[in-house]
Amino acid sequence: MNRIDRLTAILTHLQSKRTVRASELATRFGVSLRTIYRDVRSLEESGVPIIGEAGQGYSLVEGYRLPPIMFTKEEALSMLVAEKLVEKSLGEQSSKFFKEALIKIKAVLKSSEKDLLVEVQDTIQVLKSNPSQVMDKSSKAFHTVLEAISMKKVLLGSYVTFDPEKKTERELEPVGMFHSFEQWYLIAYCRLRNDYRTFRLDRFSKLEVSEISYSTAKHPTLKSYLDQVSAEQKLHQIILKVPDGAMKYLANSKYNYGFVSEERVGDITEITFMNSSIEGFVRWVISLSDLVVVKQPLILRNRLAELIEEIKTMQG
């Protein structure tokens, strides 16, 4: 961030709170306290009425207001994503207040940014949200996809499949993104496969926007595509807790039941599956019921208990 941008951001930050400490500004902008002191002095010399109180921090004179703030395209798109996530993460009342506040923020956007939000808003959906894991290493790919969608440009990417682990080069016409099962996914028309495919964003080792344009008119909307998939196949997220000694019994068979990922927690491995059939899954996992624990969902745990009782009755 150059100095002009930092001065503007400091001024915006000062207006957002009653008082702001110099150490808070230094941390936010990754600069030294001396730099902050110098920046604040420059703002004062330019006529901004800043009050500095020893031990308290800086504040703006009551009544001083900035003119409407201009947002960048990336910042405007980030607001749209935040709105989608908050809608799923907060209660109805809090979500309502957030949306009302966001409307006021959107009011100061330039016309081009407003048009962009209207055009892109239907290409992002949040089906299920875990606020602590909505973004991580997918972040860079996420913003690259948003840029491609907004510009109607083909994506060029190197995608690594899970099993077998294999890298392929893809040319993708993005339809949209959705968040579910703690991951962001891209729906796109794959020119390599000549069909629509779903890609996990964190599996792209490289992703960039090309100069090749594509028409959105020939593609379904994200909502209609997801509705179709949902009607064809309802997926359940299943998590099993497996001790070290039992992992060998799942090593090969797990791939037949929608294996997604595994995470080490102490001497236990939590394995995540996505499977459309609770009944089919429970009849596999019952053969491992003395070795594994079903963490979720509750419907699977209950069905497993019922099936064990049915077996007892039949054998008794």
UniProtKB/TrEMBL annotation:
Keyword Transcription: yes
UniProt xrefs under PROSITE patterns: HTH_DEOR_2, WYL
Annotated keywords: DNA-binding, Transcription, Transcription regulation
Domain of life where this protein originates: Bacteria
Keyword Transcription belongs to the record: yes
Endpoints of the signal sequence: none
Domain HTH deoR-type: start-end pairs: 3-58
Molecular function per GO: DNA binding
Entry-linked InterPro entries: CBASS_pafABC_assoc_protein, DeoR_HTH, HTH_11, PafC-like, WH-like_DNA-bd_sf, WH_DNA-bd_sf, WYL_dom
Pfam families: HTH_11, WYL
Protein name listed in UniProt: Predicted DNA-binding transcriptional regulator YafY, contains an HTH and WYL domains
The organism of origin for this protein: Algoriphagus winogradskyi
Native organism taxonomy: Bacteria, Pseudomonadati, Bacteroidota, Cytophagia, Cytophagales
